[in-house]
Each structure stands twice: as C-alpha cells, then as structure tokens.
Write a structure and sequence with these properties.
about 500 residues; outer membrane lipoprotein receptor (LolB), chain A; disordered N terminus
Amino acid sequence: MKRFFRMSLGPGGLLRSAITLTLALPLTIGVYGCGSSSDRSPSSNPASIQTPAAALPEVAAADYLRQVLTRYRNTRAYQDQGEVRLRVQKDDRLERRTAPMQVALQGSTIWVAAYDARLWSDTEMTLGWIADEQTDLHDGQVVVGAPASQRGDQNRPTLDYLLKDPLLSARMVAGLGGPPPQLEWLLDPDPMAKLFGDAQAGGERTIEYESMQRRDGIDQVVIRAVADRDVYRFWIDRKRSLVRSVDLPVSMAGQQVQLDGWKVRSLELRLREATFDPSTELEFDSIATSFPRSPQYVGALVPLPPPEPSSLIGGRLKPFDVSDLTGRVRVTHRGIDRQMTLFFCGQFSSDSDADEMQGDAQTMNALAALSHWQTQLGDPMQRQLRIVALVDRAGAERLRTSGLVLVQDDRGTLATDLGLQPGTCCLVDADARIVWIGDLATPLDAVTAQGVLADSLEGIDVPRQMHQQWRADREAYRQKLDAVGVPAPR
C-alpha cells in the first residue's frame, strides 16, 4: 500500500460571491509575499500621534462610518499604496511582518496587488497572475478573462467577476490579514454589512467614537466597531473622509502564523497615499511591474505540481565507519543494527550571536518535533528504526541526555553528504540509500516521513515511486495547462 504523501492537482476551493472581512481563512502552507522585521507597529508609536485641531463629527458614529463607506461606493477614482502589518510574538521574540494590499480604481479599470496575487481589469480584458518569485511567478501563468465591467467604461467592475478564478482568489484571501477590505468598500453594494447588522441577531454590535487624533499630520476620527467578538478600529481622515488605516481583529491573521507557534499581537492595514483624486492615469505598463516575462495565457490558473524530489533521494551514501561519542556504538553508512536509520542534524554553532540564538531555537524545536514524531510510530516501526544525531561540540553538550546516538560531526562533512541543514532529517535504508529528506517540525513532512518509513519497511522502492509520481504529476500538469490555454491577448 502506498502511503507517502502526494499533492493533488485538483482546483482550489471556490470562494463565496462576496467577500467579507469575517471570511474564514483557509490553511496556508506558506505566508505569501511577505517581509518581516523586528520593529514596532507605527500604530503603536506615540510620536506619530498628536493633539488634534478638529472636533469629532456631530452625527452618530454609525452614521458617519456609513457616510464614509458610501463615498467609496460612489467614487469613480481611488488609489492607495496599502500594506498589511502583522506583529507576532514567540517567547521573547517580537517580529513584524508586512505584505502589499493595494487597490487602484479609475472608472471601469481596477488594479489589485494583495499579497502575491495580482489582478488588472479594464474595458478590454481581465488579467490575473501570482507574483511568487520562488515558483517563477507560478510558472508564468496568466489567467485571461472578459472585462470585470461588462457594460462600458461608465460602470464599475463587478466583485463577483474579479474573484472568479478560484486559485487567484484563494491567494488574495489567504495572506496575513484576509482579503483586501478596499474591494468591499468600493464594489460591494452593502459594505461591512456585519458591522451594521441587527444587534438582536446574536453577539455584541456597537459602533462608537473612540477619540479624535492627529496622526502623521492629519486629523483622524477613530471609530471602534464591534461585531460579536471581532473588534475593528477605523482611522478616518476628518477632512477627506478617507480611511487611513484599520486595526483588524487578530483572528483574521493567516492560520499558518498560529500553527508556527506565534501569538498575534496586532494586525493593521495601513493605507499609505490613499486618495480619491489620483494624480496620474492608471496604466498597465507602469503599475504591473511584476508581470511574467514569458507568460502562459490560460482560461483558469492551474495548481503547480509538487516540486521535483531531491536528486539525493535514491542515491547511496559514500562509505563511512565511525563510533558514537561513547565509543561503544558503531555507525556506518548503512546505519547501525536496524533496517532503517534516521539521521538528525543537531548542529548549533554559527558565526554570530544572533544567528546562534535563532539556530539554537530552530534546532531545539526540531528536536522536540522529532521526539513527538517518534512517539507516534507504532511498536513495529520503532523496533526497526534507529535515530542518530550528527552533532558539533555545542550540539553534543545540549543533546547529551537526549537518549539519541550522538556522532561527532564538527565540520559538517556527514551532514553535507546527507543533504542536511541544522534541524533537518533523512531516512536511510540498510542498503545505504537515502529514501527521504525533510523537516519533522513541518506537519506535512512529518506525515510524509511516517508513510515513507512504513512503505520502506514493507519492501516498497519509495525513491523510484517518488520520481515516477513526480514525472506523472508533471505530465498531468502539462496536459491540463494545454487544455486551458488561450491565445495571447492583443
């Protein structure tokens, strides 16, 4: 029975026709299109906030917020350089992550850059692509469709049509802070409906003025809105009725952040350079700088096949014969005395104090994941597996009481031959063949490793099947790409 993991080529899940800020976010494998730094969020910087010169509006807060959103719904032009900012903490580490969340609208033309999703629609066509450098911009795929506004340049784009492609929409929604709320303000007939819903429908619903602040030289109305357990804080330009920033509910942060053990401290959408009066025309060539150089035009984006297995998978190790730190256990390229051996890279030393602290934490987390993974194995598999840790001097000191077989590898020679970085592992069979390489701290890799171990113990040639499966998946991907291909737009 084949148990090792394989990725599906099936389409991503469909999105609802109208997005809201309360949309449940799907699980992400990665955080798309983001940067990070150890910095404080500008919204928490007292130096940027001063005593305001203007007074709060005289109308009720809910009415004022409705008026502001109505202006978005009625405007023919809007543009910002939006950025979502996430502050997270793990132990004593505080980190800020950022990602683009930009929207520009001029009549029936719209541009969206949300995380690594890019979308352009004008009176002639709609184009969408994924600006992910690690996958060569999603293999250069560009989805082509009809204009999001079907009735001439006097009409606005349709939200349903903009979110028509499931894969592009999923990428637009599943980043650090959910979907771009600017799209909802500009295109949804009833924006932020949850905030204005019936209070008797369940949960707290309040909209109230919190304060009047002068931030970044602009008098801003601060409105606090509560919908059930979600709390929003709008910073609105008093003079121009523009939303300058929104403090979003931390529950909207991408779920991968939670899985990685980080605790979300704050989530902010900062709408830099927001304006209803752009100074330049919205032109594709000037704004779409991330467009693929060799585009493959398609009617629908196709999920990429799994990456090719490492060239080390299926290869045999160079012979070696060493003793563990006790001098009592002999370790060779074939392992010790079991059918399978898992080699763990337990090296800690690095060139700088900061790198050493981060490397130590990563390796210790990987060691904890290894221990948890081992306990999940059944007795038959545990009896057929030996675990060996390749350590430098620092690693030997830290792992001395771990119960693992420790082999000194100060220069990292064995780790290099095995294709290992600190904290990663590989499975080697009794014929000295590498059958799997990965990181057990990653849930997907942990599941895959257990399947590979089980199949290998049953005599299945897992490396051969991995390479065959990859070739089959790649061919299926190419066939699907040919099937959905469309002529290049003119």
